[in-house]
Amino acid sequence: MGSPNKDSSYLTFYKILDIIYIEIERRKFTMGMDAYIFKAKTKKVFEDDNWYNKVEEVWYARKYWDLVEQLPFIDSINDDCGEFIQLKKDDIEKMIEIATHTPDYCGGFDTVPALCKILYNFDEDEENGWRYYFEFDY
Known about the structure:
Radius of gyration: 20 Å
Low-confidence stretches: none
Distance between the termini: 53 Å
Structural class: alpha+beta
Number of domains: 2
Helix content: 40-55%
Strand content: 15-25%
């Protein structure tokens, strides 16, 4: 047996780099982002420069890409921050299902109770004119 071919070693190295690059690109959108759920009377409030003082932050997760990658509405979100997606009750239920099986890397299972509280209050809040909105931010 001779020594490995220098060309094949380089090919293997570049194949590994390609795999790493693909994985980085796949996670690039979600990995560095924090996720929020806000409670607001209307989506229009987010157009105001002072919107944060007019809504209630009801859930936060830091770098929770396992959950984010499985969100039922993930395909409808573009790469820009500041997009607010109105959540349905089914979305919250799916988030709870995911969050009970995959811990938040920065908070363990701390995000589950807040999601459960949102689900518990969802119908009553909707009757009172409140809506829940999901957003990513860096």
